[in-house]
Amino acid sequence: MVRLLVCLTAIFTLLAVLATAGYTQLQPPQMQRRWLFVWRNMANPAEVDRTIALLPRAQAAGYNDIAFSANIPAGKVA
Predict the structure, then answer these.
(1) What's the predicted TM-score (pTM) here?
(2) Given 23, 43, 55, 66, which is the most exposed site by the fewest CB atoms within 10 A?
(3) What DSSP line would sit under 3-66, residue for residue?
């Protein structure tokens, strides 16, 4: 019984050391690109205005790219 307790203590100690060593060496992931996905009817001027109003808030939250749905009319892209 004592032998089992010694083995379990050694195992838990080793796991704690390994977990602590790995934890101190991990760096948080650095996000280079944060995408805002917008799926709205961009043919509707009110939706375009809502999207434009959203952009400053998205930028303040750290978003630096935007993706729109594929159904934007060619005349509305600009």
Answers:
(1) 0.52
(2) 23
(3) HHHHHHHHHHHHHHHHHHHHHHH------S--EEEE-S-TTSHHHHHHHHHHHHHHHHTT--EE
